[in-house]
Design goal:
By secondary structure, the protein is of the alpha/beta class. The strands form 4 sheets. Strands 2-10-9-8-5-3-4 form a 7-stranded mixed sheet, with helices on both faces. β3, α4 and β4 form a beta-alpha-beta unit. α10 packs across α11, α11 packs parallel to α13 and α11 packs antiparallel against α14. It is globular. It starts with a strand and ends with a helix. Bound molecules: 4'-deoxy-4'-aminopyridoxal-5'-phosphate. The site of 4'-deoxy-4'-aminopyridoxal-5'-phosphate has 12 residues, from α3.
């Protein structure tokens, strides 16, 4: 059977109008219509992030956005602190080390969030580091790190630049880089931004732009200053041919999110994740993330303590539901389902019902697992 429900944490199931808009006839990327489109996307991205200034859009996946931040800010002889609580935290440090810079590793148990005090201590212990690399939403475990609190706890003096992997956070949860004091954040189109894969996005603080003064970026296509120059021209443009169809789709997706309003949008995602967690617990699944506050509004990871988790994923696939599995040390042991889009109660019932069938739970579960989920879903709805 074909996939009917795509529950992987990117790409995600997209609103029909986003897909339709992406299929519109192309326009030239040096014509006024493209400049208008680009300017509107910039304005709406800045509304979403409550920020100002250029947001560089690259033809790249999330990895490209992380690489772009790394090659612009780091190089041979530099030291950075890399805080990781999962596969993507580890990936970010690997990318950064390709520049020749050297990482000081701070590792937190997979499934746990990073504590503000842990990062502050690492900064005090390692003076002279140019940057801190950290993941906002760790997709491999479904953990959100408290970036705002982490930055607030950093020493003011000689603070390293804070480079954030926001690939799986932006669009699905509060992420306000300027307000929180982030210096650079990279994200991608295919998760919270409800767009097909293919765009990497990077925002920088004023301090971070100033830090690039006089630098020559060793990558031409990821040179942030080159992109900024064309974006801030009278007619906003791209230095290289952009994937125009994806710009169409992103424009529509941002319009849909902002029409709902970011407050309601973020709150609904949290509520959906909470209702899903309650339903999963009622079914007898174990959530990987114990601490409720650290659970991601975008992706939930859980295991089945009484049987073969991979067999359940296989059955779900046969039912037309595609999920993601565990990664790294949790390979083969987790089911991860994403909830970045505008799904609600009906889809939640389909997912919980399919899990009930796939894990063969008849007669073994709390009869009111749906009622548990419903109670949370209707809260403040
Ligand atoms: N960082 C995080 C937190 C991610 O979730 C992902 C993708 N799952 C990446 C980086 C890499 O992004 P991409 O696969 O788009 O290159």
């Amino acid at each position: 059977m074909n996939t009917r429900y795509l529950l992987t944490p990117g790409p995600v199931e997209l609103p029909a109008e986003v897909l339709r808009t992406g299929a519109k006839p192309l326009i030239g990327h040096r014509c006024p219509a493209f400049s208008e489109l680009f300017a509107r996307i910039e304005k709406n991205l800045n509304s979403l992030l409550k920020s100002e200034g250029p947001i560089i859009i690259l033809p790249a996946s999330g990895t490209g956005a992380l690489e772009c931040m790394s090659v612009n800010f780091l190089g041979k002889g530099d030291k950075f602190i890399s805080v990781s609580c999962g596969i993507f935290g580890n990936r970010f440090r690997e990318i950064a080390e390709r520049t020749g810079a050297q990482g000081v590793y701070v590792d937190v148990e997979f499934g746990e969030a990073v504590k503000a005090t842990t990062v502050a201590e690492a900064v005090k212990k390692n003076p002279g580091c140019k940057a801190i690399l950290i993941t906002h939403n760790e997709t491999s475990t479904g953990v959100v790190n408290p970036i705002k609190d982490i930055i607030a706890a950093l020493p003011e003096e000689n603070r390293p630049l804070v480079l954030v992997d926001g690939v799986s956070s932006v669009g699905a949860m509060e992420c306000f880089p300027e307000e929180w004091g982030i210096d650079a954040i990279g994200t991608a189109s295919q998760k919270g931004l409800l767009t097909p894969p293919g765009l990497g996005l990077v925002w920088l603080s004023k301090r971070a732009w100033a830090a690039l003064d006089g630098n020559i970026c060793p990558s031409y296509s990821y040179d942030l200053k080159l992109h900024r120059k064309d974006l801030e021209a009278k007619a906003p443009a791209n230095p290289f041919t952009p994937p125009v169809s994806l710009y169409y789709a992103l424009d529509e997706a941002l319009k849909e999110i902002l029409e709902v309003g970011t407050g309601i949008w973020f709150e609904t995602h949290k509520r959906y994740a909470g209702a899903l967690a309650a339903g999963l617990k009622g079914l007898g699944f174990e959530l990987l993330v114990d601490e409720e506050e650290a659970r991601s509004p975008g992706v939930t990871a859980f295991r089945f303590p009484r049987g073969d988790t991979e067999a359940i994923r296989k059955k779900l696939r046969a039912m037309g539901i595609e999920t993601a599995g565990g990664q790294g040390k949790y390979k083969g042991q987790l089911i991860r389902v994403a909830h970045y889009n505008n799904w609600g109660w009906p889809e939640l019932c389909i997912i919980l019902g399919a899990l009930y069938g796939a894990a063969d739970l008849s007669g073994t579960v709390k009869a009111d697992f749906l009622a548990d989920a419903w109670k949370i879903w209707i809260r403040e709805a």
